[in-house]
Design a protein that fits this description.
Metallo-beta-lactamase, Chain A; RibonucZ/Hydroxyglut_hydro; MBL fold metallo-hydrolase; alpha+beta; 38% strand
Length: 105
């Protein structure tokens, strides 16, 4: 069964409840997954990791940079301790770094 996730959905997983967060900017309809019980964010392509650090959005791969940064601000509203990015992998960085990225650093 296929399920279209557009954001705002919450569903149960083996890792606990998961919230689907709309994170457009990298692409229209892009979503990320937030696991509040683990303070874990799976940002997919909304963020990148470079040299072991949460590096933010990739300007050359993001057609709508302003919207992408707004999406990072939405993610920063959650209690995140760890982030998994599709480009760069896992990093122990979360809310504080997301706020820095959303603020333009």
């Amino acid at each position: 069964m296929d399920v279209r996730l557009t954001g705002g959905e919450t569903f149960a997983t083996a890792a606990g409840p998961t919230e689907v967060v709309p994170t457009p900017g990298h692409s229209p309809g892009h979503v990320s997954a937030y696991f509040p019980g683990a303070e874990l964010l799976v940002s997919a392509d909304a963020l990148t990791v470079a040299d072991g650090e949460l590096a933010g959005v990739s300007p050359e791969m993001t057609p709508d940079l302003d919207t992408a940064l707004e999406s990072v601000a939405v993610l920063a509203d959650r209690d995140v301790a760890e982030t998994v990015c599709f480009h760069g992998g896992h990093v122990e960085a979360g809310t504080e770094r997301l706020e820095e990225i959303a603020g333009g650093e």
